[in-house]
Amino acid sequence: MVSVHFSGGGGFVVSSHSFLLLTGGLAMLGLPSCYWLVDLRGYRRWSIPFRSFGRNPIVAYILAGLFARLASRPSVAEPGGDRISIHEL
Q: How buried is residue 37: exposed, middle or buried, by Cβ count under 10 Å (0-12/13-18/19+)?
């Protein structure tokens, strides 16, 4: 049984047992893979953007909120040059 819940922000959440097992398994493979690449093999150049968010997680929190506000307020220009929200169309 799959249930889809629509959120107020326009996204949706899929909740089924197989989806949860799949994403949990991918996470269990992803974390050890990153550990092996970064700590054991020494490939660190690709992880520079992630390290900056790991050192200061409050910046990631603030940027996520800012991006959510900007993405939820799309607008288009009218022929007269005025901006109008997509929600008003």
A: middle
How many domains does the chain fold into? 2
What's the CA gap between 33 and 22, in Å, rounded? Answer: 16
Q: What are phi and psi of 76, to 5 degrees?
A: -125, 160
Q: Quick: pLDDT tens for 39-64.
A: 899 888 888 877 777 788 888 888 88
Encoding tokens for residue 61?
Answer: 């929190």
Evaluate if residue 7 carries a pLDDT over 70.
Answer: no
Q: Do residue 85 and residue 63 come from a single domain?
A: yes
